[in-house]
Each structure stands twice: as structure tokens, then as C-alpha cells.
Amino acid sequence: MHYVSTRGGIDPVGFSDAVMMGLATDGGLLLPETLPSVDQHTVSSWSNLPYQYLAVEILSLFIDDLSRTELEDLVERSYARFRHHQVTPVSRCGGVYILELFHGPTFAFKDVALQLLGNIFELLLKKRSASMNILGATSGDTGSAAIHGVRGKAGINIFILHPDGRISPIQKLQMTTVTDPNVFNIAVRGTFDDGQAIVKAIFNDLEFKEKYHLGAVNSINWARVMAQIVYYVYAWSKLHAHGFDSVDFSVPTGNFGDIFAGYMARRLLPPGAINRLVLATNANDLLCRFVNQGIYSRGTVQATSSPSMDIQVASNFERYLYYLRDENGAAVKADMQQFDNTGRLDLSALRQRVREDFVSVSVSEAEVMETIRTFHRDGDYLLDPHTAVGVRAGLTFRHEKRPMICLATAHPAKFGAAVHEATGLDPELPPAMAELADRESRCEVLDADPEVIKAYIAAHALES
Length: 464
Ligand SMILES: *Cc1c(COP(=O)(O)O)cnc(C)c1O
Hints:
Pathway: Amino-acid biosynthesis; L-threonine biosynthesis; L-threonine from L-aspartate: step 5/5. This is threonine synthase. The chain folds into 2 domains: 3-110 and 221-420, Rossmann fold (3-Layer(aba) Sandwich), CATH 3.40.50; 131-212 and 436-459, Rossmann fold, CATH 3.40.50.1100. It is built from 20 helices and 15 strands. It has helices at residues 15-21, 40-45, 51-62, 68-79, 110-127, 141-150, 169-176, 192-204, 206-211, 222-241, 257-268, 286-293, 317-324, 329-342, 351-357, 365-379, 385-397, 416-423, 431-434, 450-460, and strands at residues 3-5, 30-32, 90-93, 96-100, 132-137, 156-163, 183-189, 214-215, 247-252, 274-281, 295-297, 344-346, 358-362, 404-408, 444-447. It binds pyridoxal-5'-phosphate (PLP). Pyridoxal-5'-phosphate is lined by residues 108, 110, 141, 219, 252-258, 308-309, 386, 409-410.
């Protein structure tokens, strides 16, 4: 399996190189050169596989430069710390199915991909006798999942910037109580945007980037998408075992990452297995406008109760665009240039095709609150606000004959304030979350100045 860039400007590379590259060197995103698909017979044989076994089957379709033993070992270690033996169990409530993706170390779905990515990085670096310093800025969720993905790993140091005093206490503790010697938490005296701008400036200093082997863990790494394909197939196979041939998924979306994995799963499985993908957005409706009108245009970010989806540029959108443009890299490159220049892309001529893949609705704050309240009152099930966005959208498009599987992307206790507002109830903190307050913590507070951050990295980076 080789990987190409959405902008058509690189020679195909193997899986390992694609993972180490992150962003393609021509500025595009990496995708498999040809998409694997599996027949009915094969998927039927996957029906009762435990999550880890299924993951190995699916990953091996996309990876041909790691051995089966290496894959089995990676998968085994990546999901050993999940609190549910099924890793991503499916439950049923309020007329929909709920695919629970929050049983990992940081109680949000990003663990599914980042636990695996951390282990893949460690293995590849070891094989190459190399090291890497990961640098990222976070508004909360991604940073903690990344830290938990690489803590204690050989050959990797990680530096994560968060805005000092501007993330929730739980989110802060999930990062700062990781005191492994390879983890460096930096609280920046500034906003999330300041942190992001600093990271961007440091990555643009190519000499510094080379010298310290800087790497990223943002959602554009192909390995993250790949890891997420697994739970779509897992959920589908659970319902298939109950006699359903076709299902729908509803996905709360910000960066287009999670739902793009659903699109890949839909193309992997036999036609019709995944009927529709519901793209659910909060008030930040950039992607909803794209699906319904064919116009992809930047707006201004609005703060909502589902902050991990408060996004106005969807970093994985370009991957879908590549298929919409019939795998024409030059066309994608022109589109992205136009978007960079004008903040707007008119794809309305392709609207029909988009609507064969997705349906979409934007969910208001009032609807989020009402959905959390209803599921608690009628089903005794607590939804976090991100999950509630997906559930609400799923109910809008539910077909009576087909299961609607809604992705639950965070544990309700992680966003307890919103749950409290909706239900008057404070979700019980799981022990792993409750005990954080008593742990030792480590964090450096630094000025929002790229030179200050660089000096700190230089003093603590791994060199090779
Ligand atoms: C990141 C995140 C999302 C959005 O996922 P994308 O891949 O960016 O679409 C949804 N819910 C939670 C809890 C998240 O952390």
C-alpha cells in the first residue's frame, strides 16, 4: 500500500513514511493510492471478532511495511488501557444506538487514535534509530489525548502548550498530572490562538524544526483516520450480527476527521452496508452549509457547550475534496489555493454527489440542552454535549427500518457543567478522573513569545 498527496505533488510513499511525514511535503494530506474494499464473505467472517482482532484485520489492509506480529503487538498495547473490554461498546437508548468511544485514558474519542499513533511512532523511531520532539497547542482535548498517547515512550519528548487559566480544571489535570520525564506541559500567558500562532511560527523556522526533529500529532496524520475506521466497522458488525444489513451513522463533527473515517469505512464495506452518514455540527455550521448548499466558506468561531467542535476550518476536509474531484491533485491544489486567498469555495455544482455521501444539520444550544435532558429523563443515560449534537442530528434523520448509530465522543463527566445546566445533575466522576486532584502535577508557565518557547524546547529536547 502506497500513499499519495491530495495535491498530487509527491512520489508515492509507504505507510511508515506517510506516518512520519504527517503533512505531505507539497502541503497536501496523505491518502492511500488505491482504496481497499472487502467483500460480503470477508465481512461476515469478521462478525464476532473482538475489537483488537478486527483492528488488526483492518489495519493490515492499509499497512504493508509492518509485520503481522508487529501490528498485533501495537494494537494489543494500544487498547490495553481502555476501561471497557469491548474497547468501543454499542449501547441502545432513546430509539438510537450509541457507540461509546470514551473509555480510553482521557475519556474522549481521540484516545482511540492517539494511543495507537503513540505506539506506531515509538516503533518506527526505534527501527530508524531516530528520535522526535512533538510540539502542539491545545484548547483541551487533543493535547491530553496526545500526552497520554506518548507518555513514557522511548525516543519521543512531547511539548504541549495550553492557554494558562483558560481550560477546564479536569482538562488541565489530565495533562499536568502526567509527570513522565518525556512530557512537558507549558501554560502560555495568553489565549489558545496565541499558543497556536507560536506553534505555527516555530514549525515555520525550518532550521529549528530540522535541528530538533519536530513532529506534530494533529488530526491530519493518516494513522489517526485509519485507527478510527475500525470502530465504524466494529459497530456495523455488531448490528449485522443482529440481522441488520444496513445502518446509518451520526457523527458530531468539527475537523471532518472522525466523519472522514466513516466515509472511508463506507467505501471499505460492501455497498449499502453504511447507508448514510449524518454530519452533525453545533452552531459552527461551516460543514453543514457545505453539505446543504455546496459552499465551503469560513465564518467566525462561536463558543458553544461543545468546544471541541468550535472550529471554522476543517483540517481534514481536503481529503474528502480529493475524492469529490475524482482524485485530481491539481484541481484540489487550485481549490485550496482559492480557499486560502478568499476564504470561500463554491462547490455547488458537485452538491448532488456530496448529498449521496452525507446529510447534515446544525444543532442549536437549546436543542443540545433539550436532548441531554430528554435522554436523562427517559433513558437514564447521560450524554455529553458533543454526543448530544450527534444524537439530535441522528434523530432528525432516523429511518424506522435502519439502526441509527450515534458516536459518543466524550464522557459526560468531562463536560459536567453543560450536563449540570441541562439536568441539574453533576455527573459522577469516574475514579480515574476523581483521583487526579490528589496527584502530583508538573507545568511550566511561560510568556506567549516564540523565542521564550523555543529556548525552553531547546533546553529539554531529545537530540539525535
Ligand atoms: C475532537 C472532538 C470532536 C470532533 O472530532 P473531529 O474529528 O474534529 O470532527 C467531537 N467531540 C469531541 C469530544 C472531540 O474531542
